[in-house]
Amino acid sequence: MHNHQNRKSAGETNFGGRAWLRALLAAGLALPLMFGPTLVASAPNRPGAQGHAAIGSAAVDDARQLAADREPGTWMSAGRTYDEQRYSPLTVIDKANVKQLGLAWYGDIDTERGQEATPVVVDGVLYVTSAWSMVKAFDARTGRKLWEYDPKVDRATGQIACCDVVNRGVAAWKGRIYLGALDGRLIALDGRTGKVDWSVQTTDPKQPYTITQVPRVVKGMVIIGNAGAEYTCRGYVSAYDAATGKLRWRFYTVPAAPGDPTNTPLLDKAARTWSGEFWKFGGGATAWDTILYDPKTDLIYFGTGNGLSWSREIRSPGGGDNLFVSSIIAVKAETGRYVWHFQEVPGDQWDYDNTNPMMTADLKIGGKPRHVLMQAPKTGFFYVWDAATGKLLSAARFAPANWASKIDLKTGRPVENPGARYTAAKAVIVYPAPLGAHNWHPMSFSPRTGLVYIPVTENSTGFAGVKPDGFKTNSRTYNTGTVSFSDEITRLYAQPGAPARGNIRSYLQAWNPVTGREAWRVPDKDYGASGTMVTASDIVFSGNWSGEFTALDARTGQRLWAGPTQATVVAAPSTYTIAGEQYVAILVGARGLPPGQARTSAVSANNSRILVFKLGGQAQLPSAAVKAAGATSHTLNPPLMSGTNEQVIDGQAIYGRYCSGCHGAGGVAEKTIPDLRYSTTLHSLADWNAIVLGGARADKGMVSFKSILADGEAEAILHYIVSQANKDKATEEAAAKTGR
Ligand code: HEC
Q1: How far is the centre of ligand 1, averaged over its atoms, from the C-alpha of 159 (Å)?
Q2: Among 334, 64, 339, 75, which residue's Cα sits nearest to residue 219?
Q3: pLDDT in tens, 170-222
Q4: Domain locations in the chain?
């Protein structure tokens, strides 16, 4: 695909004018290989982007990662550099030629669930993970698959994965590729072959822990946290020796029962911000996403999630801040020793995890250079801290929020709306909802424009607590201690001035972290967030839920280019060069197909694929629709209602507790998991029970609930879903009649 036009345009833009100078300064070691098309054609056997390491050697170490900007053609860690700005100095693709982007190659991903990984590209190989923690390695230039690895995670683990069986990518280090598997294993693979070098269980397998995050390698240690704060888990972050897998340190984020040997003096102090027998529920505060290392401060930062249960009335009946729930914690890299913390949401009860992507940057604030840490968390407030001390510099609101009016810069505490806290006796409407104004989807920062590119989602939810008396946890299910559907919540939403319920709108926002203001925003046609990346050509790359991968002007938001993905995009892109050609890679697939898109992949109902674009790329995605075996119908066709009122009401509560986490609140599936209202199994209690109790689909992630449900409960859920489906069918029919 090295057609003449492509080579010429790449050459012109890369080696002409200021772009050339930038490339020269930035390219460092890469220069010899970046010169000209002749070399591209004559050096087919040297696909290593920089030429100084053999293909597949994954030869990343401290020095190379620290000097990542000297090899702009490599994307050697998920955030590219330690600061995780997801900014690429590459300028081969620029505003003038970006319209020539075409598909260079693609690779099919053989899973049906959410795909969240950022491709890592080093020494000529692109490494990407998919749902169920599987890894694939491709020749980054040709797309030839070099190896794949499946850790064979027990599909029953899906039951304890709060938010799908996703994985956000690998780390590379001294020849090894590190993977955090859903079942809590940390696995080191040989970068050339994909063979397991070592594997350690980082969690108690009897506890409902999962891992979906990217491991980070810092000073020869692999740093990894975990998830499970909706179940019965207590959060911690561990450091393992990268060569041997030996545990070096562990930091627990919340106290255990008094006298527990894992309680440090710091945690004993933290225990004073809790009340009651909080440890009985597990504690929560899992650090499930971002772990960031900053070489300037030599600190590792991680964010912690919600407390367990979400309802504070249950987990800490006397109130309190509940340290270190919903906080940022900074520890010494070598030892994991505590240095500072900042609790963003004291006494959180809205699932406002603060695990969201963070980055460090050098900004000029009030005319003074500051080395800062930044985060756009679920809460809707954009935080800027001094990276060394954790001192709050600003916290401006970047999205609508009704739980707090502002953040007090002196105390660092939110000024809560007095109506924002719910109890068992009091329901509230809160926005942002638990999915947040900004969740795990990577944001990016350009030091050239000074802007942060955030995928923002606006949403609202109702909350009420369940009665604390007699509240019991079950390690295989959600234990949030909340309800989001009730007559009272429906009444609140019906009141004048109430916000829309559920998902409202989404947009890509360019945010100025110095002024605390939005520079521009581009609304999405279809609701949903996708990760971002920005380049030195002032181009922001991002996918969307309409089935596109887009290039936007980083200064104005103007759309410069869009290519089809045939799939929903949630992950963030990365970019690299090989022999002077710039490639942009994006993993696609999640949460059903975009509107109007047919299935074209034989191996994934979501058209999950790794797509790699370059200037003049000529590859084509398949156009023929693939018939999916056993696909659920897309018209509501439920049987007539036959359940009693009691069954429907019970079924609603049981569904909310055990099923809605995967199948969607109110029976409306948001994910890649069947919407039960459409299921043909509604017509046969025997078929329904074979799946729900008999485990007939356990190999696909629908485990048996036999040990969890009491007699008659599976049937009650069926009646509830049938009732929902009939209601929704009636609404659809009425709407069709009135032409709305
Ligand atoms: C951990 C996630 C998860 C939970 C929790 C869960 N399911 Fe499922 N369920 C799935 C997945 C994944 C499938 C699709 C399996 C497949 O591909 O065949 C599924 C499929 C089904 C189906 C078959 C639908 C069809 O027509 O193909 C039924 C019925 C069902 N689930 C009922 C339930 C009920 C009832 C509950 C609560 C007691 C529940 N599920 C909880 C993940 C889950």
Answers
A1: 10
A2: 334
A3: 999 999 999 999 999 999 999 999 999 999 999 999 999 999 999 999 999 99
A4: 100-396+408-615, 645-738
